[in-house]
Predict the 3D structure of the following.
Amino acid sequence: MTTSGKVEPQGKVYKVSLRRRKRNVIDRAFQYRVISLVLFTILGTLMVYVVLLLLYFKLFSPERLEEIRNILSYILLNNLFLMVSMSVIGIRYTNRIAGPVFRVRSDIRRVLDGEEGVRVSFREKDHFAGLSESVNLLLEKYYEIKNRAERS
């Protein structure tokens, strides 16, 4: 295995480092789309909550309106913290989805470029573990058919 995360040939099977990814953003468009969706949901919920809260106190308890405005700063600060933490968690989580997709795409590219013995492997905590097994079975069948065709 390599410590640099690069692919090294070892016989006909390629080993890939299963260490942590160096980049958290693998597929920028996908990951940012997911994060944006989460952040806009939090922001939309916050806006509805604040408007309803202000309306309620303006209609039913106008004398406490100033008190509520003071509380709103804490609510906004809380939601800012929530948005930042959800962004970090979202990037980490989507990395475990985008990483395997990136790995399969790059390994398929290697096969199409004529490289022999390519095997797909994911990191331990990545999603889609079954996908790597299926792709590897497909690659084995492909190599069998290719070798038979070359022999005949």
Remarks:
- Strands lie at 8-10, 13-15.
- Residues 1-17 have pLDDT under 50 and may be disordered.
- The radius of gyration is 25 Å.
- The chain has one domain: 8-151.
